[in-house]
Design a protein that fits this description.
The protein has 141 residues and is mostly helical. The chain is built from 1 helix and 3 strands; from the N terminus they run βββα. It has one helix spanning 50-137, and strands at residues 15-19, 33-37, 43-47. Strands 1-2-3 form a 3-stranded antiparallel beta sheet, with helices on one face. The longest helix is centred in the middle third of the chain and has 88 residues, at 50-137. It is rod-shaped. The N and C termini lie far apart (121 Å).
């Protein structure tokens, strides 16, 4: 057998192929070969040959490798999402600060507009007083 058993897909431990003590004796499984992990005790049984047992076990290990890749991809995605959330939070804070500054500037502008209206009213009043004084003095413009 040239192919090697891959590590356990659950714990990464070494796996071995074994047969039941007396393969001719009927057990609850129909076939004599099984693969077991020396680390965590996980096993897969009911294989007619060592080759079938190895092929099935190694397929599960490939599934575990794929699962690890998916998990790594998810972790990368979660990290990117967290970074994006942080960037968005900073943008929102910047937007809020800009809005606050804009609101203050608008309030100052309103105050200035009110002051301009007051000054214009004072100018009109002064112009009216000046006309009245001129008419009393006989100087009509």
């Amino acid at each position: 057998m040239s192919e090697k058993l891959k590590p356990c897909p659950f714990c990464g431990g070494e796996a071995i192929i074994e047969t039941f003590p007396d393969p001719s004796e009927k057990t609850k499984w129909n076939e004599p070969y099984y693969v077991a992990c020396k680390g965590c005790g996980t096993y897969k049984n009911d294989f007619a040959t060592e080759e079938l047992a190895m092929a099935d076990w190694n397929r599960r290990s490939a599934d575990a490798e794929l699962l690890e890749a998916v998990i790594a991809g998810q972790e990368t995605l979660q990290k990117a999402l967290a970074e994006e959330k942080t960037k968005n939070q900073r943008l929102l804070e910047g937007r809020d600060y800009s809005k606050e500054l804009l609101d203050k500037q608008l309030e100052r502008n309103r105050g200035m507009q009110n002051k301009i209206h007051e000054l214009r009213a004072e100018v009109r009043m002064l112009e009216e007083i000046n006309r009245q004084m001129s008419s009393l003095a006989g100087d009509t413009p």
